[in-house]
Amino acid sequence: MAQTVGKYMCVALFVLVTVALGQVVAQSEGAAVWAPTWADTLKKDLLKGYDPSIRPSQHYNVTTVETGITITHVEINEIKSTLSVYGWMKFKWYDARLAWEPQLNGNVTQLFLNQSAIWQPTLDEKGPLVKVTSNGLLEYTNALQQQSKCTIQWQRWPFDTQQCRMLFSPWAEVDGMEIHVKMLKYEIAHGTMWTVMNMTLETHTAIDVHETPVHRGTHLVVELKRNSGIYRSTITAPACVLILMNLLSFWLPPNCGEKLILNAINVLITCMFLIHFNEYLSYYTTSTPTVVLFFGQSLYLSGFCLLMTVVLECVVKSNSKKPLHPALKKLITFELIAMIISTNKTDEKCLGDEMCETLQDEQEVEEALSSTRQRPTDTPQQDWMLFVTLLERIVFALYVIILSLMLALYF
Questions:
Q1: Which residues form the Neurotransmitter-gated ion-channel ligand-binding domain (predicted)?
Q2: Are 287 and 160 part of one and the same domain?
Q3: Count of domains observed in the chain
């Protein structure tokens, strides 16, 4: 029995020794397969004693960070007054602590390190790997998806140019010009609504006593111009037509009913434009666009023209059988005024059209027109029409003056 137990113990001991020797051999083989490379050794040497919280320059020197920006899309939310920028940013800077001699390190000329292991101008540690070359140059490209508040200047809408400031957060706090960010280059992809005209980088430090802590740091100043080609067709062209309609109404004969219809349509269309502007524009703006002011003033002028047309037509119809005051009649007989308000063939045709409604005989119409041509001011109705025409010419001159002042003031 004792011999059997001893035999089993010897077998168990042999198995244990065999397993232990196998593990030792496996570890030695694995160590031979996964031997450190030149890059592994170089990385350990470079990061040994490296403090990522200290910038790569003496405290009395400036660390220069070069930045290249590619903008792929830019968007302004006019209701919320926010600017959104999408694209790519490329950073470059030198860190002498990460330089090495390639000849002494297996001719390794570049490495890729995690952002959390080295100093970087931003506080984002979840970005891509940083490329490090043997001369100590570090660079990496990061996605740009930034949104910030932008005060919208509404005065020149929709032919406006906006300038927005965007703080690159989270940028490392700049204190005493320790970090100088320089724009290396920028590329812009033209958008559909806005076109980026220019981009600049501005650095505000704690030394600027007039700057609040919110404005300190490095800012990207973006100048954008609205692509307003469509607005020239939807706003400028209708505005010109409305002005021509108002001007045309002054030159129609006083007894033509089309004047009332023309002015009423003008007022209606102008009101529709103002309602559209009210729905489109932001309710948070403190300034009214000049286009809206122009349409608002045009509505007043169109309303006045409509009111004047109604009043003058009532004057002509109510006083057509009463003689004009001698002083007013003498006024309209002056040669210069008579040339301005003289009736033309269109006036005679309109008068003939009205007569055709009451006179059945064509010969009587011709006789009435002949008498009108021979003595245009003999009848009270004709005198009143000439006087009303004089008033319309005066209002026309005032309208042109006011319109010119509006164009000079708003545009």
A1: 41-197
A2: no
A3: 2
